[in-house]
Amino acid sequence: MIAHFKWIVGRLLSTVGGIACTAIILALLGGHSYSSVAALPAPTVPAFEHVDIVVDKAILRGLMFRPAGAGPFPAIVALHGCDGLARRAPQIPSFYGEWGQRLAAAGFVLLVPDSYGSRGLGSQCRARKQTLQNWRDRVGDANAALHFLQEKPFVRADRISLLGWSTGATATLWTIRPPASANDKAPDFRSAVALYPGCHRLADLAWSTRVPTLILIGDADHWSAASACQQMVAGARGRSALVTITVYSGAGHNFDRSEFPSRKRGARSRIGGAVRKSSDANVAARVDALKRVREWFER
């Protein structure tokens, strides 16, 4: 019953905005404060387009969402997770499509480079050997997308941030490590957000960031350990740009997805390799993350 209720609320959040949705949630959750939902713009359907980005003489395909108007607008480079963007045009993955719609409605250009499909790869979630490396290949994709946006007249070249999920979040943390390229005279990323990244290796390498960074992760995530990210952030304090971490109680991997019912399901953990139970969608974490991400980029 509870799982079914959470699924219904998740669908409401992805399709209904404004005061009516807030009232329903407040009534059903017994008075818990979710007033921030009213501040979230209802996701309209802004124009999106398929774009080509040049990376080392190769073509990196991507999806770009734009607000209405001429701009110039702040922008976000968004790095997908291990699922990638493998869909037949003109269909777009609903998860990344919803984020694109929400952020474009809030006044941002959002560009999602397709790191896997552009190289003939499908989902890498169950791949035994990773063909692309987060620390090298996807960092290159992020920087190429940054330069692509900086050349557009409808984008503010000095207001481009970085966003990533799962493996894309790990690539985000690699991308913003200091120093920035000494040969790059263009503005750097302004800020970054990483949702449920893998932090083990970065923590061991004494990670730090050169831009303000927000990390959002759940303490029930059996794929990306919140404790490793907390250790990484604690180690970076005092020698890094502003970094903030929020750990959501009871939230698992993919907690911000609306299309997954909140349910217990078997998942092979990357922590110890054991099969454990984990829950994906989490209503409270999703609502809070939607608000925090937008506010972080608006700073």
Short account of what is shown:
With about 300 residues, the protein is an alpha/beta fold. The protein has a single domain (about 45-299), classed as Rossmann fold (3-Layer(aba) Sandwich), CATH 3.40.50.1820. The chain has eight helices and ten strands.
Report on this structure.
Helix content is 32%, strand content 21%. The strands form 2 sheets. Strands 1-2-4-3-5-6-7-8 form an 8-stranded mixed sheet, sandwiched between helices. It is globular, with a radius of gyration of 18 Å. Helix 4 (134-150) packs across helix 5 (167-175). It has a single domain (44-298), classed as Alpha/Beta hydrolase fold, catalytic domain (Rossmann fold, 3-Layer(aba) Sandwich). The longest helix is centred in the middle third of the chain and has 17 residues, at 134-150. The chain has helices spanning 2-15, 18-28, 94-105, 134-150, 167-175, 200-204, 226-236, 283-298, and strands at 48-55, 58-65, 73-79, 109-113, 155-165, 192-195, 213-218, 243-248, 265-268, 275-278.
What labels would you give this structure?
single chain; 299 residues; alpha/beta; Rossmann fold; 8-stranded mixed β-sheet; 10 strands; disordered N terminus
- What gap, in angstroms, lies between the N and C termini? 40 Å
Structural class: alpha/beta
The H/E string reads: HHEEEHEHEHEHEHEEEH
Mean pLDDT: 79
Helix content: 25-40%
How many helix segments?
A: 8
**CATH homologous superfamily assignment:** Alpha/Beta hydrolase fold, catalytic domain
Task: Estimate nothing, just give the exact number of structural domains.
Answer: 1
Task: Name the strands of the widest sheet in spatial order.
Answer: 1-2-4-3-5-6-7-8
Shape: globular
Strand content: 15-25%
Nearest-angstrom radius of gyration? 18 Å
Largest sheet: 8 strands, mixed
